[in-house]
Write a structure and sequence with these properties.
With 95 residues, the protein is mainly α. It is built from 5 helices and no strands.
């Protein structure tokens, strides 16, 4: 979870490359520990999608965000968390 938080902070500071490294690390760790359908995996994918959007690469963001939305919808997380992923996906689709 620490890498997810650090990635979000770095992205907020306008450092998408550094954020990407944190989200990729979180994806590898959480995927190995919890499996590919865990909410932490969705959070890492959402972070990577947001990085791609920040780097003006909506085509790269779209599949990451679609996967994040699907995982969050299936995992039963709070509806707000699903909506956050859907909003990012909407940005990718509009870009």
């Amino acid at each position: 979870e620490m890498r997810l938080g650090l990635g979000a902070v770095l992205l907020g500071l306008g450092r998408p490359a550094a954020a990407r490294a944190e989200f990729e690390g979180a994806l590898a760790i959480h995927g190995a520990l919890y499996g590919p359908q865990h909410p932490f995996v969705a959070s890492a994918l959402l972070g990577l999608g947001r990085v791609a959007l920040a780097e003006k690469q909506p085509g790269r963001a779209r599949p990451l965000l679609e996967q994040a939305v699907a995982i969050r919808q299936k995992s039963g997380v709070d509806r707000i968390e699903v909506a956050r992923a859907e909003a990012a996906l909407g940005q990718a689709l509009l870009a």
